[in-house]
Amino acid sequence: MALISQLFGDEIFDPFLSLINKCPVLNTPIDWKETPEAHVFIADLPGLNKEEVKVEFDDGRVLQISGERNVEKDDKNDKWHRVERCRGKFLRRFRLPENAKIDEVKASMENGVLTVSVPKQEGKKPERKVIQIEEN
């Protein structure tokens, strides 16, 4: 414990708290799955509502999910003992494949879980062309 005090001062060092402070809402882990019909993005955004989240396309086929968890208003008489919940902005970008129908994207949010569905276009199936072999 003496070494920890030397490195971090007299304040109590909590290794678990240092992991939490990596702030999951700021890093915003997002799942991306592809179904036969669409690309589906699922993001856990606890404590945020749809007004605090933005879904948009940038540079053609780049899906951008961003938002902000605002700091609560402080009363001058309040005394904080711990602040562990993350606050601040987040931004994630995903380059979508050519088959994404950007003009038909749907997004919904329920219980702090954002789901973005990007339908897929039917890809061109390769044509089969028979080449005649000539005799010399």
Task: Please sum up the structure shown.
With 136 residues, this protein is mainly beta. The chain has helices at residues 2-8, 15-20, 24-27; strands spanning 30-34, 38-44, 53-58, 62-69, 88-95, 106-110, 113-119.
Can you tell me about this structure?
This protein is mostly beta strands and 136 residues long. It has a domain at 24-71 and 86-122: Immunoglobulin-like. It has three helices and seven strands. It has helices at 2-8, 15-20, 24-27; strands at residues 30-34, 38-44, 53-58, 62-69, 88-95, 106-110, 113-119. The chain is rod-shaped and about 95 Å long. The model has no long low-confidence stretch (mean pLDDT 81). Belongs to the small heat shock protein (HSP20) family. Its main location: cytoplasm. Keywords: Cytoplasm, Stress response.
Relevant terms:
136 residues, four-stranded antiparallel beta sheet, single chain, Immunoglobulin-like, mainly beta, rod-shaped
If you average the pLDDT, what whole number results?
A: 81
Helical content stands at 10-25%
Examine the coordinates and then state which fold CATH places here, giving the name of the CATH topology of the domain at 24-71 and 86-122.
Immunoglobulin-like
Taking Cα atoms only, what radius of gyration do you get, to the nearest Å? 24 Å
- CATH top level of the domain at 24-71 and 86-122 is Mainly Beta
What is the architecture of the domain at 24-71 and 86-122 at the second tier of CATH? Sandwich
Q: Can you list the strand order of the major beta sheet?
A: 1-2-7-6
N-to-C CA distance: 89 Å
Main sheet specs: 4 strands, antiparallel
Order of helices and strands: HHHEEEEEEE
Oligomeric composition of the shown chains: single chain
Number of helices: 3
How much beta, percentage-wise? 25-35%
Strand elements, count: 7
Shape: rod-shaped
Structural class: mainly beta
Low-confidence stretches: none
